[in-house]
Amino acid sequence: MSSCFRRIFAVAGNTFLEAVRQKVFAVLLLFGLVMVVGANYFTEFSFQEQFKFLKDLGYAAISLTGLLVGLLGAAQLIPGEIERRTILTALSRPLRRWEFVVGKYFGLTSLLAVMVGIMALAVWGVLKWKEVQLLGSEGTDPAVVAAIRAESMDPRLIQAVLLVGVKLAVVAALAVFFSTIATSTTFVIAMTLVVYLIGHLQSVAREQWLETGEAAGWGVRIFLAAVALLIPDFNLYNLIDEIVAGNAVAWRTTIEVIGYSAVYTSILLAAAALAFEGRDI
Amino acid sequence: MTSAVRTQGLRKEFPLGWFRGRVLALESLEMEVKRGEVFGLLGPNGSGKSTAMKLILGLLRPTAGNAEVCGYRAGTISARRQIGFLPENPYFPTFLSGAELVRYYGKLSGMGGARLEARVVELLELVRLGGEAGKRSLRTYSKGMLQRAGLAGALVGDPEILMLDEPTAGVDPAGSREIRDLILELKARGKTVIFSSHLLEQVEDVADRVIILHRGQKLREGRLEELLTKKSEWEVKVHGLKEDGRKELRAWLENRGAQVMREGAPRDRLEDYFLRSLPEEKRR
């Protein structure tokens, strides 16, 4: 393995290990799992509604837990290291600053991947559990049995897990970018949240920018263009809701969203590395 | 052969914030450290010692001037490969154990595999953190142990230069003596050691050359013998001289025109006395 990869993996591994050894992340994971498992006790609906409820709540729990872990993890990344001054000993090594930034990002996304994986398994387990419960209570009508099995073993849920994962990966890249220019953990959390929320309105800004002609002033047009171009469009990930609602989403669309996320992530990491390069430590 | 470290007109200003101007931390520092010497950066707090070190490490960008490490521009990967750094306070990831810390720093230096594992064991033994001590979390370490673990981490890439920022600050006399002995051992192994301190007695024990900084400016530079030796005075230390002999000696000196400035039984240094008072195993 080349020295460059070894150094990036060392930073990523250390970031991951730090998070794993902190109780707060275990508590957040537990909170998410309780949400997922607890949803199984809502039984006043038809079986189709019960499955939809489980999937809705399951994916909301993964997204929320992932967002919290991503924000807290990112806040620890660079400002946390600067506050604790552990960054001095790391960056005094023969380690390029961009390697440090990329390593931190990989460490955080590994943590998110593990959490999303564990919670997705929990959602799958709860769906199977519900299947067993319903097969016991709803009788043996082959049509009903097939419908229950189709709801619990929906392969489209893999698409939803992938989309939740890449959405969190973009949030992590945003947080890493802000952590390279921030002086405090609060700033990183606040800015990432603000951009995350604006990202859900980004498509509105883009449409306004494209549609407003000469009528709008230059200031407004520049602002709308900046929002449309600089901020990722988080509405794209609403495909997750479509999947959970039982609608088919083409794999091609999913792959396009993953590609969009990869491009945005690369741009954000490049900007983060550039910002961090000239920073006094 | 190129110098270990050379700075030319090295200057650093820090911005104080919007519309609040800048503060000068280091003013045109000219400094040369030869290979294999122990070099002390002296000065009170805020004199620019840490700033100079961070500039040499590439952690800060100079406002003007430049620094070189073994002929490489400071801050480049080649330059940092030559330096092992121990910061002022033990700023280490405390969720790691001593061995994990040294291993992590080794990986950051591009090392890996069996070579790194052997190096981790060797260095932990060198700083007397081998065996069970190396497996304990850094949270459970004393300040002296943390400094020793940090020193092992600084040495892991087998650097040419060791840069130690206030290595004995907050460490008890026994720990301080250990670090001093380690510096001398590293010098004996041919390493260049640059360290900063405001504890002047300790510097005197180990440094070959020093510079004295004050408010970012260099006040003095030179070899310790040259700076500290009072050439117009002469000192003789004797053992077993009785009272009548002392009187005779004093009279003999005065007859030759010498002025006796001080005489009497010499006092021990408190640090030496303290260390001698400790049981043998605690002294090490």
Describe the structure in your own words.
The complex is a heterodimer of chains A (281) and B (284). Chain A has one domain (3-277). Chain A is built from eleven helices and no strands. Chain A has helices at residues 3-20, 23-38, 47-84, 86-91, 97-137, 142-152, 156-181, 185-211, 218-230, 239-244, 251-277. In chain A, helix 3 runs parallel beside helix 7 and helix 8 (185-211) packs across helix 9. Chain B has 284 residues and is an alpha/beta fold. Chain B has two domains: 5-228, P-loop containing nucleotide triphosphate hydrolases (Rossmann fold), CATH 3.40.50; 243-283, no CATH class. Chain B has twelve helices and ten strands. Chain B has helices spanning 49-57, 77-80, 98-108, 113-126, 132-135, 143-155, 173-188, 200-206, 224-228, 243-255, 270-277, 280-283; strands spanning 5-15, 22-33, 38-42, 64-69, 72-73, 83-86, 161-165, 192-197, 209-214, 217-223. In chain B, the strands form two sheets. In chain B, strands 6-7-8-3-9-10 form a six-stranded mixed beta sheet, sandwiched between helices. Chain B has a four-stranded antiparallel beta sheet with strand order 2-1-4-5. In chain B, strand 9 (209-214) and strand 10 form a beta hairpin. The model of chain B has no long low-confidence stretch (mean pLDDT 87). Classes of the chains: A mainly alpha (281), B alpha/beta (284).
Helix/strand order of chain B: EEEHEEHEHHHHEHEHEEHHHH
Low-confidence stretches of chain A: none
Biggest protein-protein interface?
Answer: A-B, 29 and 32 residues
**Number of H- or I-type helical stretches of chain A:** 11
Distance between the termini of chain B: 37 Å
Q: Determine Rg of chain B (CA atoms, Å).
A: 22 Å
Supply the CATH class of the largest domain in chain B: Alpha Beta
Q: What is the overall shape of chain B?
A: globular
Topology:
The complex is a heterodimer of chains A (281) and B (284).
Chain A: H1 3-20, H2 23-38, H3 47-84, H4 86-91, H5 97-137, H6 142-152, H7 156-181, H8 185-211, H9 218-230, H10 239-244, H11 251-277
Helix pairs in contact in A: 1-5, 2-3, 2-5, 3-5, 3-7, 3-8, 5-6, 5-7, 5-11, 7-8, 7-11, 8-9
Chain B: E1 5-15, E2 22-33, E3 38-42, H1 49-57, E4 64-69, E5 72-73, H2 77-80, E6 83-86, H3 98-108, H4 113-126, H5 132-135, H6 143-155, E7 161-165, H7 173-188, E8 192-197, H8 200-206, E9 209-214, E10 217-223, H9 224-228, H10 243-255, H11 270-277, H12 280-283
Helix pairs in contact in B: 3-4, 3-6, 4-6
